[in-house]
């Protein structure tokens, strides 16, 4: 199944080029009072929501996917976990280019040495919301990644059981300001974490360790690789992350980016693809610019 969040926080079931509005399936969610849970209640109850969505989908309104404003499929992640230098060729390109590492020793080490890092949840947006660049006088780069969402509480999970904790997969864009500051600081401005265009349940993905992924900017291909080139795969990343902190339903993990990272600028249109997930188009603007895009550059998810 493919779940999207669109418009005014509507829940959609993606069916090819159409979306079934199954928002009323959210009625099965438990009522919450303060203090609110620190996890995403939709993801925590996804099985029940999916069951209800299947029941009501045939009679639910059908909307054309094109033109819908797609939000992040996860509304309330407790944390965004990110994997640095998780592709060998990207690790080498960082070492070879001072514009990427800025003589920062932390950027020249392996993922096994430096571990993972966290991005602010306030940086999260969906494909239809676009990227608004902060500090446009500095280099801002795109990084396309396979992202996945944790479906149940996970602590000290061995890699042999790790995939059982995945609720679904999506495309992730980890936007980065180059510089000497800590990774989390440079990668956490508003809109610098894009998740979308929807959440795909694991049964539609199969092996997450063998998926093509790519990104183009203004129709120019910049990155193209396969997740089989990751140093640590999905299961290994869950094992590593859960050995340091508990993962909760709705937590997002970005698995790292391949070689080919390069600069983006206001007015660019990004098209990112992950095999079996789909394609999403995202408009790049400056933080002070209006969010709305001209019709021909509307940021919207595309059919898989």
Oligomer: single chain
The total of helices stands at 7
Strand content: 25-35%
Give the topology string: H per helix, E per strand: EEEHHEEEHHHEEEEEEEHEEEHEEEE
N- and C-termini, Cα separation = 12 Å
**Uncertain runs with pLDDT below 50, 5 residues or more?**
289-300
**Mean of the pLDDT scores?**
92
Largest sheet: 12 strands, mixed
CATH-scheme architecture of the largest domain: Alpha-Beta Complex
- Overall structural class, as computed from helix and strand content, comes to alpha+beta
| Helical content class | 10-25%
How would you name the CATH homologous superfamily of the largest domain?
Answer: Fumarylacetoacetase-like, C-terminal domain
Our Rg estimate from Cα atoms comes to 18 Å
Number of domains: 2
CATH class of the largest domain: Alpha Beta
CATH topology of the largest domain: Fumarylacetoacetate hydrolase, domain 2
Principal-axis shape? globular
Description:
This protein has 304 residues and is an alpha+beta fold. It folds into two domains: 2-71, no CATH class; 80-302, Fumarylacetoacetase-like, C-terminal domain (Fumarylacetoacetate hydrolase, domain 2), CATH 3.90.850.10. The protein is built from seven helices and 20 strands. The protein has helices at residues 41-44, 46-56, 88-96, 98-101, 111-114, 183-186, 234-242, and strands spanning 2-6, 10-15, 18-21, 62-64, 70-71, 80-82, 117-119, 124-125, 131-133, 140-141, 144-150, 166-174, 176-177, 193-200, 212-217, 220-226, 252-254, 269-274, 278-286, 301-302. Strands 1, 2, 3, 4, 5, 6, 7, 8, 11, 12, 14 and 17 form a twelve-stranded mixed beta sheet that branches. Strands 9, 15, 16, 18, 19 and 20 form a six-stranded mixed beta sheet that branches. A two-stranded antiparallel ribbon has the order 10-13. The radius of gyration is 18 Å and the shape is globular. The two termini are 12 Å apart.
């Amino acid at each position: 199944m493919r779940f999207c969040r669109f418009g005014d926080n509507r829940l959609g079931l993606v069916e090819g080029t159409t979306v079934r509005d199954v928002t009323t399936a959210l009625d099965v969610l438990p009522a919450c009072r303060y203090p609110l849970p620190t996890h995403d209640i939709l993801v925590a109850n996804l099985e029940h929501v999916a069951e209800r969505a299947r029941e009501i989908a045939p009679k639910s309104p059908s909307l054309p996917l094109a033109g819908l404003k797609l939000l992040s499929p996860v509304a309330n992640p407790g944390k965004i976990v990110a994997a640095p230098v998780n592709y060998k060729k990207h690790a080498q390109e960082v070492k070879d280019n001072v514009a990427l590492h800025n003589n920062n020793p932390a950027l020249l080490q392996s993922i096994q040495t430096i571990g993972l890092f966290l991005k602010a949840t306030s940086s999260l947006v969906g494909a239809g919301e676009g990227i608004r660049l902060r500090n446009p006088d500095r280099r801002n780069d795109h990084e396309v990644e396979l992202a996945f969402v944790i479906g149940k509480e996970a602590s000290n999970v061995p890699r042999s059981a790790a995939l059982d904790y995945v609720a679904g997969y999506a495309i992730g864009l980890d936007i980065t300001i180059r510089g000497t500051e800590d990774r989390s600081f440079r990668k956490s401005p508003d809109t610098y974490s894009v998740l979308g265009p929807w959440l795909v349940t694991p049964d539609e993905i199969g092996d997450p360790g063998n998926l093509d992924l790519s990104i183009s900017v203004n129709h120019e291909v910049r990155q193209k690789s396969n997740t089989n080139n990751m140093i640590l795969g999905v299961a290994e990343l869950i094992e590593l992350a859960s050995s340091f902190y508990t993962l909760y339903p709705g937590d997002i993990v970005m698995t790292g980016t391949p070689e080919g990272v390069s600069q983006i600028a206001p007015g660019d249109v990004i098209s990112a693809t992950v095999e079996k997930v789909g394609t999403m188009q995202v408009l790049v603007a400056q933080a002070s610019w209006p969010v709305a895009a001209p019709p021909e550059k509307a940021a919207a998810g595309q059919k898989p």
